[in-house]
Amino acid sequence: MMWNRKYLLSIDDLSIDDIYEIFETSKSMKEIIKRPIKKVPTLRGKNVCLLFYEPSTRTRMSFENACKMLSIDTISFSRESSSLKKGETFLDTLLNIEKMGVDLFVIRHSSSGILHFLKNFLNSKIINGGDGTNEHPTQALLDAFTIIEKKGKIEGLKIVIVGDILHSRVARSNIKLFKKLNADVHLCGPSTLLPKEFENFDVKIHYDLKSAILEADVIYVLRLQIERQFSNFFPSIREYNELFGIKREILKYAKNDVIIMHPGPINRGVEIDSDVADSNSSVILEQVENGVAIRMSILYHMLV
Fold it and tell me: 186 phi and psi, to 5 degrees?
């Protein structure tokens, strides 16, 4: 299947066929990652700008690595050393960079929905690397791919997303994708971080961790995003950990073969304890490996 897509801004941009085509191509990309020489000439001559307006480790480095393995040339953007410090607008910065021969932008920005604005002005293709509290579609794709790889399917599985759902772009993309692939999606967290408006996503809402993860196939743990919180949503970090932290003893309520996921970075001892994050049930590092393969697949389909 050959794509004719300019944008991947939201899970809504993808059909079911698109999603499974990404997954199928990712299997081939994983083979490249495991080779002694991790590089193919597939996209030689293509030029990608990695424009990250917020801090990132996994997403930025996996995109950079994906580009290198596909022989894509990259331009990196640093806000601190750019003309934005001189008063240039964000749009003008992008328009100037585009004229340097950029085929595709990977953009992370703190403003939700800004990429939908930018696409009206840019001729280059755009991948959403995370926009505010809106969406993070490539993270959702690597998560679903990991679940299918570990469980053999995703349809019908009970997936429980636990934590700071209010501030999470990952949660929003994952809910959309998991529902699209017919998983049984549950959300759990303190009421201040899980408002009732999330019932509109056609998911089950829980405010008690034990009842939420009962017979769960997948527990997806979200980071407590202190940097996005402008008021106190719970009394203390310690209380949050006691009530919603994923500890070994709580896993007895889930299925014996439950898998534990986390998009990173992990706050050990806050939303997840170290002995769970490092256990055989954890697939957190496999998510990282699959992140490179998924992003290689997306770049391939958008640039070939």
Answer: -125, 145
| Angstrom distance (rounded) from CA 239 to CA 235 | 7
Which CATH number is associated with domain 7-135+288-303? Answer: 3.40.50.1370
Instruction: Note the CATH number of domain 137-283.
Output: 3.40.50.1370
- Cβ atoms of 157 and 181 within 8 Å: the answer is no
Structure-block tokens of residue 290: 């699959």
Quick: pLDDT tens for 97-145.
999 999 999 999 999 999 999 999 999 999 999 999 999 999 999 999 9
Give me the half-sphere count of Cα atoms (radius 13 Å) on the Cβ side of residue 242. Answer: 6
CA distance 260 to 277: 8
pTM > 0.90: yes
H/E run at residue 206 = strand 204-206
β-partners of residue 206 are: 188
Ordered by start, the domain boundaries in the chain are 7-135+288-303, 137-283
The residue behind tokens 């293509």 is: 46
How far CA 302 is from CA of 3, 6, 104, 171, in Å, comes to 7, 7, 9, 25
Q: Tell me how far CA of residue 99 lies from CA of 79, 83, 120, 180, 304, in angstroms.
A: 18, 16, 16, 37, 21
